Amino acid sequence: MCSIGAVYRPFFSWKTKEVEKRAYNAAIKGELETLSYCLAELSPKHRSQALTEWLSVTEFIKTLGLEPIDWLERAVEITHMFTPQTTGKHNLYIILLSKLNAKIPGYGLYVGETSKTPSIRFEEHAKGKRNRKGPLFSRVVHKHHECLLPTLYHHFNPLSKEEAKELEGEIAEALRIEGIPVYGGH
Known about the structure:
The chain is an alpha+beta fold and 186 residues long. It has helices at 4-8, 16-29, 32-42, 51-64, 72-79, 118-127, 139-144, 150-153, 161-177, and strands spanning 91-97, 108-114, 130-131, 134-135, 145-148, 182-184.
């Protein structure tokens, strides 16, 4: 991703029909992140001429019982306002949560930091891993995890331990201020 538009809008340079096709494929596969970016790109906000395609995809995903993440594009903008200052062996990660507070879709985010890779840390949360000292997972993530959202955190990693801890809290707070439900970010 080489420009700011590409960071916030991964499909901005694609033709409308290509984005529509990608949206259908993402919906069939249940890829919420890709589907949400495609719908945002097809929306009248970005492409007023794509209203027919946007409505078509929207109707299709309703038949599948899927709900796109309507605030994902804004979450990318927020996380990309932060710039890492250090490098090290720690990583930030952000997990999509669903069915929070008994709502469907009830999306939210979990912001965390780790000395492990984000995918290993995600697996620990998802599988409810424990060690001799106790649980290695957050109960809210274990119960409500969907997937990692690398578009929100990949530009940070790797970080120093101190900066990872600091950014974890700052990013979580910035997302909360925008009205996005956030857990973690200690």
